[in-house]
Structure formats: C-alpha cells, structure tokens
Amino acid sequence: MSSETISTINTDQNHNFNFPCGGQMNKDYLDTVAFGATIIWVGILLLAANFMTIVDPWSIFFLGAGIIVSIGIGLRYITPQFYRNLTGDFIWAGFLFFLGGWYIACAIVLISLGLSHLNSYFKSNN
Fold first, then answer.
1. Which DSSP string corresponds to the chain?
2. How far is 61 from 38, CA to CA, in rounded Å?
3. Is the pLDDT of residue 22 over 60?
4. Pairing of strands 8-9, 24-26
5. Phi/psi zone of residue 118: left (φ > 0), alpha (ψ -120 to 50 degrees), beta?
6. Contact, 125 vs 110, CB < 8 A?
7. pTM of the model
8. In this structure, how many other beta carbons lie within 10 angstroms of the beta carbon of residue 18?
9. CA dist., res. 76 & res. 86, Å (int)
10. Residue among 86, 88, 89 at smallest CA distance from 77
C-alpha cells in the first residue's frame, strides 16, 4: 500500500486524524474515557440486575450516566488541555439527570445553568 491510501495522523495539539476521503475526526480522549465508563456502568447495572431486584434500572442508568458526564465536565473545567465550550455538556448532563429522576433533575439543571453562567463570566473577564 502506498502512503496516500493509509490515513495519516497529524500530531498537532488538537489530535486531528485525516482520512484519505478528506474527512477529519477530532480525537478527544476524555470523551472516549467517558464513553467507556458508561459502557462499564451498563455492565455493572446488568450484573446487579441478575443478583438483586432493581426497582427502576433505567433511572439508575441515566443517573449514573449523568454523574459520569458531570465528572467529565469537572475535568474539562480544571484541565486546560481538555477545555472547550461546556454549555452542550451541561445540557446533556441535565438531560440525563432529568431522565434519571424528576426529583434530582430540577436541582441539577439549576446548578448546571449557574455553573455555565459563572463559566462564561470568568472566561470573558480573562
């Protein structure tokens, strides 16, 4: 195979992968870890469902996925290497918490909106 047919890897700071068809894929390692953690969470939940009665496994799954996304938001906020606009992540975490339970969803959505507002304020003043 020639080097033109094999996809090339840019070693720039954004970790972009170029493909021969001309497309690009942004490789974000934190999202990959979060996706893997969510798959592990599903496996643990299914294993627990075999050994005990879980009242509502879907709500537990969505609450766990919301916690994983929230941990990713925290890591993105404190690590400059992984920082990006976090508004979409806040909305996604709020949606997962909303699906996980009404009682916690309202509080998480309000906290997410407040953190997003503070985030935009502090980033605009720097």
1. --TTTSPEE--STT-EEE-TTS-EEE--HHHHHHHHHHHHHHHHHHHHHHHS--S-HHHHHHHHHHHHHHHHHHHHHH-GGG----HHHHHHHHHHHHHH-HHHHHHHHHHHHHHHHHHHHHHHH-
2. 9
3. no
4. unpaired
5. alpha
6. no
7. 0.62
8. 13
9. 8
10. 86
Count of residues making up the chain: 126
What CA–CA distance (Å, rounded) separates 92 from 69?
A: 8
d(CA 89, CA 103): 21
Look at 68 and 51; give whichever has higher pLDDT.
68
Average pLDDT value over all residues in the chain: 77
Q: Name residue, tokens 């879980």.
A: 54
Among 93, 92, 83, CA closest to 126: 83
